[in-house]
Structures are given as structure tokens and as C-alpha cells.
Design goal:
heterodimer, A: about 290 residues, alpha/beta, Rossmann fold, about 30% helix, B: about 350 residues, seven-stranded parallel beta sheet, five-stranded parallel beta sheet, 8 helices, about 30% strand
Chain lengths: ~290, ~350
């Protein structure tokens, strides 16, 4: 019988970039996330599913959610708990604001060192707000761990050996690695299971320390009697991070300039939707050798 | 020293197109900076690889030839690049925004604590003034990319850290031979002391690479559909038009997400970048992410029920109406006027 695994899933709350309003950008070129709907990054849900599948298979496995973000990012920890995770940590501090992928990876790696060790570190391949796919490999490098990116399925685990199927541009690759390691999961992986009714009831009132402080006095008793409802918060001091490697100062990349996208007007010819005009267009394209 | 480096991806003895495109861009940037263009090739049986690489104007080619490195592996490849970059101190390093480049780039940038910008759509050289610090930086790499779901175009710089690293997708830059007879210097790197068994802790046990079936980049005509096509069934009209015209079918991310077309057909910032001579956009609203992947097309026709769809403003011709109504008319008119 295999012993249970300790798994952490790195999850990010992302703005729903399909709906960006005018007020979404701040003067310094960084994103004003508060102005947008926030969702669980889709590929992080694919990663969570891989973790929960292992939990189903290997008794004693625990799944921890780690997210870095503002206070409201606690929402995705709750979402993870509803779907079957065991606990979660919110990494939150003003010092993290404006971090690029390198500074973010540094903060996450320090947090993992603090709450770990873990056998497996799972994350989505990339987040929809940046589409960079950099944080997973950079966390692996900071922790001096091997990585398997673009994973589609964890096929097998035996002892500390893990077999993973990767989805490449034009094919698949099966690799064998040794835990501990970092795996990033791609969007073609199995979709995440929905919320579990019992878990949702159990964790409905799960809150971070800051959220509990805002809750009414009547509830305080609840959090004392049910410790699992407390979502721990971690700040810079908790993870013993070097502040010079965080936030804007710790980010080697800077945003020099942001341009709102303006469509360039081009002379566009309107073709009426009738057989005659469409035929004239096709004849024109045949004559100038575009088609034919 | 402080040259521009391009990491060359090699599959079955062939240098990837994206790497040749980066060499082309790299040559012109290096000329602008007055520095050398250097390439890195890692793999097995590479004695002839220079023949493919030097015509793009490479001054120095670093080769690591080792049986164990025939296929890409994160740890040994990143170790080799990290050591090489520590020694050579490039000012710029470019990689393809491929599965390999996006696995390798972040690892190397993290180890070197240098910045990396993913999926750039344009690379330029320019200056930067940091008014707060009262410092002027000359000849930085402007890494330009759509950000935040493509609603903005961001110019990213790395003022203080080197190398300035960027990845670029296949098809975004042009591939152009600099001089077919150009020859540069070959430097062979001996890695026998550098890499050890620990670097092979992740091993490939099976590999199945398919030949690319759908080749959007080579298609002179692309009939692309968006969410507005409405259904997978309606997409059949696009296949029919593409077949009649001798083109290929593409799709927007929204259409792929809706299951109307397979992922390999996706065009745009997170799919393939194309520049056909004719692009017929069917029911595509034209978000910037999509336009970034097709706005270099020679002629664009937009078929859309919405006269205000953003795509219409970059289209040469706009036909207002439904795809299922208009495409049959196009097919009919084409058949009537050919043969």
C-alpha cells in the first residue's frame, strides 16, 4: 500500500479578460483587477482535477491550494475546498503588488518552503490574464526541482516514480520522473469535477483571518470551534522573503508603455448580400489572381 | 561579448522554422546594435547543422552534440544554456514560444534572475529614460506583446538585467536568408563535465510526434470561422468553400472553445499566426488576439451579420449577412466563372 501524497496546487484568481472595461488599467501600467470579474484560472482547475484524482486513488493524500493575491482571492481557495481540496493558504501582502513572473515565482517558492514539503507541486500551464506559462517552471527552478510542463494526464505513480503524458504541439510524449517535482497541466487535460455538495456545506463559512475580522461577533465562536474553517494567510514575514526580490522592485521586466488597441481604419468596401455583387467580387478576385 | 543569442530548436535534424525566423530578426537587431549574432544548437548528430543555420547570418554557432541530448529535456538543456549565458553574457536571448521554448526560457531566466517576456509580436531597439532614477538606458530591447486578453499592447523592457529574454511564436516574424554562402565560426561545447545523471531524472519513455496535418501557415487561402458561425454543422460550409478555393479552414479561439473546430485550426495570439493572400473571416468579431494572428493577410473579406464588428474595419471587403446564406452564393459564383 502506498502512503498518501502531499500535493499543493498553485492556483490564481484571474480577471475574466473576455470582459475588460475602460477602467481596468492603473496609471503605472499594471492591471486594476478590482474592476473586473474574477474567476478561477481555467488551467489551474485542470491541475486541481489531477490532484483530486490522485487523492481518490491513494488514501491519505492531501491536497492544499496555494494562491497569491489580494484578500478576495480567498474565493478560489473556497472554490477548491468545495471541489475536494483539504485546505488552502492565501499568500497576500502589499509588497507583492506589481510582481512580474520572476518575483511571483520567488514569493510562491518561499511560501512552498514554509508550508511544505510536498511530493507534488501542480499548477495550470498558464493563466489567462498573462498567457506567459512562466511561473510553473520558475517555481521549479527556485526550488531546485525537476519539472514536467504541458502535462495532460498523470498516468501512474509507484513509490516516488511518476509517469506523465505530455501534450506537445504535434504529438504526445510520455515521461518518467521522480518526486518531488513540479507539474504544469494543460487545458486539454480532464476538466475539473464540479463542487461536491457535502464539501460545499462543510466549507461554506471558511474564511481568512481578515474576512473573519469583518464578520459579525456572532460568528467568532464558530471559527474557534471549527478550526478547519480558518483559511491561513501568509505575508512577507511569514515566508521570510527578501523584499528586494518582490513587487515592482524585484521584477526585472518593467512595463514601459501601454497602448490601448485602436483599430486602424482601412478603406473597406461594403458588398451587398446579393448574387450579383458577390459574383462581381469573386470575378475581381479571380482576375487579380487571388483565387482561381 | 554581449551579443544576441538565438536558441535553435531541432527536430529530426531540421532546424525549426520559428528558430530561423528568430535568426532573421536577430540578424537585423544585431546589425542595429552593432553586435554579433550567435546561435545555440543542442542535440545529436549535428555535424551538418551549420548548413541550415549560417545562411541566416550567424557569426558564431555553439554546438552541443551528445547522444543523451537527442530529444529536449528540461534539466540538461537549461543547465547548458545557463552556463553558456553566464560565460558569454549575451545582451539579448531569443527563443521560440513553443512547448520547448516555454519550458526552457523561464527556467533559464529564473536561474539568471533576468526578465523574460512571452509571446512577443514585435521586437524593436529603443531607449528608455527612468525619470525617477534620473537614468537613461540606451538600446534596450522593446518586447512588444498584446496583454490582458489582448485589449492592450504592452511594451516591456528589462532595464537592468541581462540577458533581455523574449519568446516569439512561429509565423510571427519573417524568415529570410541573409546570404546563402555566409559562414561563421563553430564553437563546440564539451558538456561531459557539466551534465550528470541527476540531470536525466526525468526521462522520455515514449514519444509520438505526428506530421502536421493541418498546415495553416502554408495555405494561400484561409476560410476562418468564429463563434458567429453558430454550430459545427454550419462550419461544413467553410470546409466546402475552402475546398473549392483550394484553401484551409481556420477558427477563432471562441469557435474552438465552442467545439466548432479543432484546436489545431486556431488562429490568433494563442494559436497560429498566418499571412495568406486571402483571408475570409466568417462570423468572427475580430478581437485583437485574433487580429494579431491574421492582420498581415493580403486581402481580408469579412462575412458578418453585425455591421459594427471590429473585424470589418480591417477588412478590404465586408458582406453583411449570415455565413450559411453568403457562402453558397460565393461557391456558385466561383464555379460559374472558372472552367
Amino acid at each position: 500500500m502506498m502512503k498518501g501524497l502531499k500535493i499543493v496546487v498553485l492556483a490564481k484568481q484571474v480577471p475574466d479578460t473576455r470582459n475588460v472595461g475602460k477602467d481596468a488599467m492603473k496609471a503605472d501600467g499594471t492591471v486594476n483587477r478590482a474592476a473586473l470579474d474574477a474567476i478561477f484560472n481555467p488551467e489551474d482547475l485542470n491541475a486541481l482535477e489531477q490532484a483530486l484524482t490522485l487523492k481518490d486513488k491513494i488514501p491519505g493524500t492531501t491536497v492544499t491550494i496555494l494562491t497569491m493575491g489580494p484578500a478576495r482571492a480567498a474565493e478560489i481557495i473556497r472554490e477548491g475546498l468545495y471541489r475536494g481540496a483539504d485546505n488552502g493558504y492565501l499568500l497576500t501582502d502589499r509588497a507583492f503588488a506589481g510582481s512580474d513572473t520572476l518575483a511571483t515565482s520567488y514569493a510562491l517558492s518561499k511560501a512552498i518552503e514554509k508550508i511544505g514539503p510536498f511530493d507534488l507541486i501542480l499548477a495550470g500551464r498558464q493563466a489567462i490574464d498573462g498567457d506567459t506559462a512562466q511561473v510553473g517552471p520558475q517555481v521549479a527552478e527556485k526550488l531546485n526541482l525537476p519539472q514536467i510542463t504541458y502535462a495532460e494526464e498523470i498516468l501512474d505513480i509507484n513509490g516516488n516514480t511518476i509517469i506523465v503524458k505530455r501534450r506537445l504541439e504535434r504529438g504526445v510524449e510520455t515521461v518518467r520522473g521522480k518526486m518531488p517535482l513540479v507539474i504544469t497541466v494543460t487545458g486539454s487535460a480532464r476538466e475539473c469535477r464540479p463542487r461536491h455538495a457535502k464539501q460545499t456545506m462543510k466549507y461554506k463559512h471558511a474564511k481568512t483571518v481578515s474576512e473573519i475580522q469583518e464578520a459579525s461577533e456572532d460568528y467568532l465562536q464558530l471559527y474557534n470551534s471549527r478550526p478547519y474553517l480558518n483559511i491561513p494567510e501568509l505575508n512577507v514575514n511569514d515566508i521570510q522573503a527578501d523584499v528586494t526580490q518582490l513587487g515592482l522592485n524585484g521584477s526585472p521586466t518593467k512595463v514601459k508603455n501601454i497602448e490601448n488597441v485602436v483599430l486602424q481604419a482601412k478603406e473597406s468596401k461594403l458588398i451587398q448580400n446579393d448574387e450579383k455583387e458577390i459574383e462581381a467580387l469573386m470575378i475581381e478576385l479571380i482576375k487579380n489572381h487571388t483565387i482561381g | 561579448m554581449n551579443n544576441l543569442f538565438v536558441f535553435c530548436e531541432i527536430e529530426e535534424g531540421q532546424v525549426a522554422d520559428v528558430s530561423l525566423e528568430l535568426l532573421t530578426k536577430g540578424r537585423s537587431l544585431a546589425n542595429q546594435l552593432g553586435c554579433k549574432l550567435e546561435a545555440v544548437a543542442i542535440g545529436y548528430n549535428l555535424s551538418e547543422i551549420g548548413k541550415q543555420i549560417f545562411p541566416y547570418g550567424v557569426d558564431t554557432l555553439h554546438i552541443v552534440d551528445d547522444k543523451r541530448l537527442e530529444h529536449y529535456l528540461t534539466l540538461p538543456y537549461s543547465k547548458i544554456l545557463i552556463e553558456l549565458f553566464k560565460k558569454e553574457q549575451p545582451q539579448i536571448a531569443l527563443l521560440g514560444a513553443t512547448v520547448i521554448g516555454r519550458d526552457l526560457g523561464p527556467r533559464v531566466s529564473s536561474a539568471l534572475k533576468s526578465g523574460l517576456t512571452a509571446d512577443c509580436t514585435s521586437l524593436e531597439i529603443g531607449d528608455h529614460e527612468d525619470k525617477k532614477a534620473g537614468k537613461v538606458y540606451k538600446n534596450l530591447l522593446y518586447q512588444i506583446r498584446p496583454a490582458f486578453g489582448g485589449n492592450i499592447i504592452a511594451t516591456i523592457i528589462n532595464p537592468d538585467c541581462r540577458p533581455q529574454m523574449a519568446t516569439v511564436r512561429e509565423g510571427v516574424m519573417k524568415k529570410e536568408v541573409f546570404n546563402p554562402n555566409h559562414l561563421g565560426e563553430v564553437k563546440t561545447i564539451d558538456v561531459s563535465k557539466l551534465i550528470d545523471d541527476n540531470d536525466f531524472v526525468v526521462e522520455i519513455i515514449e514519444r509520438h510526434i505526428e506530421k502536421r496535418k493541418i498546415n495553416l501557415q502554408a495555405a494561400p487561402i484561409i476560410v476562418a470561422g468564429g463563434y458567429g458561425v453558430g454550430s459545427k454543422e454550419n462550419f461544413q460550409w467553410l470546409y466546402e468553400l475552402a475546398e473549392v478555393l483550394g484553401g484551409e479552414v481556420g477558427a477563432s479561439r471562441a469557435a474552438v472553445d465552442a467545439g466548432f473546430a479543432e484546436h489545431e485550426r486556431q488562429i490568433g495570439q494563442t494559436g497560429t499566426t498566418v499571412r495568406p493572400k486571402l483571408y475570409i473571416a466568417c462570423g468572427i468579431s475580430g478581437q485583437i488576439q485574433h487580429r494579431a494572428g491574421m492582420d498581415q493577410s493580403s486581402i481580408i473579406i469579412s462575412i458578418n451579420t453585425d455591421p459594427k464588428a471590429p473585424i470589418n474595419s480591417i477588412a478590404d471587403y465586408t458582406i453583411i449577412g449570415s455565413v450559411t446564406d453568403i457562402i453558397p452564393k460565393m461557391i456558385k459564383a466561383y464555379k460559374k466563372n472558372t472552367k
